Amino acid sequence: MSDDIITVDEFEKTRVARFHKLEGSKLPMLDAVIPGCEREIYQIIGKGVGEDATQKAAITDNRDFNVAVVRCAPGKGTLHHDHETNEVFMPLKGRWKVFWGDDEESRHVVLDPWDVASCPPHVMRGFRNVGDEEGLLFVIVGATDPGRVQWRDDVLEEAERRGHKLTEHGIEKVPAAAE
Questions:
Q1: How many CB atoms lie within 10 A of CB 85?
Q2: For residue 40, which of 94, 141, 157, 171 sits 20 to 30 Å off, Cα-Cα?
Q3: Given the DSSP bridges, would you call strands 117-119 and 135-142 parallel, antiparallel or unpaired?
Q4: What is each CA distance from 150 to 1, 24, 68, in whole angstroms?
């Protein structure tokens, strides 16, 4: 047995995320400024593809994967985007639609708690709480550095119309146009 095994105190401090202590972000991704996309994301292991530069992950050692939990009201979710890596979805509470392709209706599945879906890299995808209560969705994004989200042009344009844009530093407010 090795003498350098991590202590219980160090394990608790660096490798355990207590949900009641997590700080969620209500502006976790650019599309959250668009009605219908309001949600809170808790970054548990690594920052994944989160776009809130101020949010911290509870567990920073994210070798090979990132974990988050999404919380939102019925009818809320995310718009079309893609990643360079796999993204795995597992509802913890509520029913969730996972969609891919060009729209929400042509290609989708509805997941109940503990069902799992895995979306492949470079496929436009999104998800929505289609239940009748607040939902919790467990999400895993592959890779230590999963890259950045790629948004559809219509999402970028609508976010900017609502006063926000995505920069290399995260989500920023767009200065008001001079009158």
A1: 23
A2: 157
A3: unpaired
A4: 46, 22, 18
